[in-house]
Write a structure and sequence with these properties.
- It is a single chain.
- The chain has eleven helices and nine strands.
- With 325 residues, the protein is of the alpha+beta class.
- It folds into two domains: 99 residues, 2-Layer Sandwich (Phosphorylase Kinase, domain 1); 216 residues, Alpha-Beta Complex (Aminoglycoside 3'-phosphotransferase, Chain: A, domain 2).
- The strands form three sheets. A five-stranded antiparallel sheet has the order 1-2-3-5-4, with helices on both faces.
- Strand 2 and strand 3 form a beta hairpin.
- Helix 6 runs antiparallel to helix 9, helix 6 packs parallel to helix 11 and helix 9 packs across helix 10.
- The longest helix is centred in the C-terminal third of the chain and has 27 residues.
- The chain is globular.
Length: 325
């Protein structure tokens, strides 16, 4: 498929002053979806997000038309998200895809948590993340496309089933499944949960701070504390382990920002439950990636390297389970 040519043909539908597109190039990153940057000839910078024609099905992923609808619904609540410009139709020749505005900033976690350029915005970033999550969680359910609903016990059961399929025996994981099962909170009023709110999916500007929440393919209805816990998983801190929120902030700043923006009071114990479940889920994912490497299904060195991180999640779980005991 000639992406550049298809974008050039689509250009007049994306802007009344455009006649063509230029500089189309695929960006790195994204395991299941493609991201392309391009410019219209009237100077408008845009992003194409598309599912490759040969992409394997994912039972947890939203159709991209639903993802675009989610972004629009979150934007209406005041959440910082890209502007959805166009949802592609079959006649556009781009497959399952949509076009959105291109934001300026950084998504690489290591640069965000360590770079001198972000030193000033890092100071208030955890608080800002709390505010943004409160806006996302306030999205009216009637404005959303059809979404799956998940709770703590459901997530535990799903990941334990995946873990059993690996036929691994990890005592720390065994203990974590049982303890988290006993501590699982109930969520009586599920809200829109981003599902992957963390470094890598947050666009951070050196002076503007958090300017965009990206990658909505895992969005669902669930416990609001799930998003708050996920950004605190140690694997997303890029070595800044003393700062539990994304490697740049503290728990209280996150919770204060959330409450001040109307998200309500969430106990730290509930956040840490979801943080522990997040570490466990990531550990199971690491096991799966190593298994794909070991069996030859995916011989890339990246899969082997990620597989080695199982031990990191076990260390995190031991600490969290002690805190929660």
């Amino acid at each position: 498929m000639d992406i550049a040519a298809a974008l050039a043909r689509l250009a007049p539908r994306l802007s009344v002053s455009a006649t063509s597109a230029r500089n189309a190039h695929r960006l790195s990153g994204g395991a299941s979806l493609e991201t392309w940057a391009f410019d219209l000839d009237d100077g408008t910078p845009l992003i194409l997000r598309r599912r490759p024609d040969n992409a394997p099905p994912r039972d947890t992923a939203q159709p991209l038309a639903h993802e675009a609808a989610l972004i629009r619904a979150a934007a209406a609540t005041g959440a910082p998200v890209p502007v959805v410009v166009h949802v592609c139709e079959p006649s556009d020749g781009l497959g399952e895809a949509y076009v959105m505005g291109r934001l300026e900033g950084e998504t690489l976690g290591k640069r965000i948590v360590r770079g001198a350029a972000f030193e000033t915005v890092r100071q208030g970033l955890a608080h800002r993340c709390g505010q943004v999550l409160a806006r996302i969680h306030a999205t009216p359910p009637e404005t959303l496309p059809a979404l799956t609903t998940s709770d703590a016990l459901g997530e535990l059961a799903r990941y334990e089933a995946i873990y059993r399929q690996t036929e691994a025996w990890r005592p720390t994981f065994e203990a974590a499944f049982r303890q988290l099962e006993r501590l699982a909170p109930r969520s009586d009023q599920p809200v829109l949960v981003h599902g992957d709110f963390r470094n890598g999916n947050l666009m951070i500007h050196p002076t503007g701070g958090l300017v965009g929440v990206l990658d909505w393919e895992l969005a669902h209805l669930g416990d609001p504390a799930e998003d708050l816990g996920w950004i605190c998983v140690n694997s997303w801190r890029f070595g800044q382990w003393r700062k539990p929120v994304g490697g740049f902030g503290d728990y209280q700043a996150l919770l204060d920002g959330y409450a001040e923006a109307g998200g309500g009071e969430i106990p730290l114990s509930r956040l840490q439950f979801w943080q522990a479940l997040g570490s466990l889920k990531w550990g199971v994912m690491c096991l799966m990636m190593y298994a794909s490497f070991a069996t030859g299904a995916d011989p890339s060195i990246e899969r082997a390297m990620i597989g080695r991180r199982v031990s990191e999640t076990e260390i995190d779980l031991v600490h969290l389970l002690e805190v929660m005991a």
